[in-house]
Amino acid sequence: MEEPIIVLLPSERLVWSGRSRRVVPTRGEWFRMVLGSLLVAGPVAAALSDSAGGFPVVVVFAAFGLVIAWGPVLWRLRTRRRAVYAVTDQRVLVADSVSGRTREEYLSDLEPPVLDPGQGSTGTVTLKRLDATVNVFGVPVPSRSGTAPIELFAVPDAARLCRLIEEAQDWH
């Protein structure tokens, strides 16, 4: 696996870089995998006990069912484990070694970071664009043209990272 390259701009200073710690399935994902497996196990058990010979068709549907239940969870775990994060004094970058893409946003275009604490000192840091919400009668409503927020998943010492991002945003 080739490590993604993050290139700094002239006069840009690296504040923090890292990658996700161990990423595990969420409760909803565990529920999805168990329920999907149970739903697939029933028809397979019925086909094994049936002597009519419908077994090959059931195996194809069972394999398709397992792909639907387990595929998105395994893909998310694979992509999150291989992402490399960098915070500079001007930008936040997420380089994905699975797709080869690098996403960047300037700190001046982002709201202050939101911390979702995890176990120990790890946590998820979410950064939304300033134009991601529109105030309607004082209530923030997501805009339709807004891009997905940048999420730094399961980063070590997430509270410190939030402080570093806030300091870099205050400096600019």
Note the topology.
Blueprint: E1 14-19, H1 27-49, H2 55-81, E2 83-88, E3 91-96, E4 102-106, E5 114-117, E6 123-127, E7 133-136, E8 139-142, E9 150-155, H3 158-171
Antiparallel strand pairs: 1-2, 2-3, 3-4, 5-6, 6-9, 7-8
The percent range for strand residues is 25-35%
Helix content: 25-40%
Sheet of most strands: 4 strands, antiparallel
- Structural class label: alpha+beta
Shape type: elongated
Number of alpha- plus pi-helical segments: 3
- End-to-end gap: 36 Å
Helix-strand string? EHHEEEEEEEEH
Strand order of the largest sheet: 1-2-3-4
Average of per-residue pLDDT values: 80
- Which blocks of ≥5 consecutive residues have pLDDT under 50? none
Instruction: Output the radius of gyration.
Output: 22 Å
Strand segment tally: 9
Keywords:
172 residues; alpha+beta; four-stranded antiparallel sheet; three-stranded antiparallel sheet; 3 helices; 9 strands
Describe this structure in words.
By secondary structure, this protein is of the alpha+beta class. About 35% of the residues lie in helices and about 25% in strands. The protein contains three helices and nine strands, in the order E-H-H-E-E-E-E-E-E-E-E-H. Strands 1-2-3-4 form a four-stranded antiparallel β-sheet. The chain has a three-stranded antiparallel β-sheet with strand order 5-6-9, covered by helices on one side. Strand 2 (about 85-90) and strand 3 form a beta hairpin. Helix 1 packs antiparallel against helix 2. The longest helix is centred in the middle third of the chain and has 27 residues, at about 55-80. About 15% of the residues are buried. The model has no long low-confidence stretch (mean pLDDT about 80).
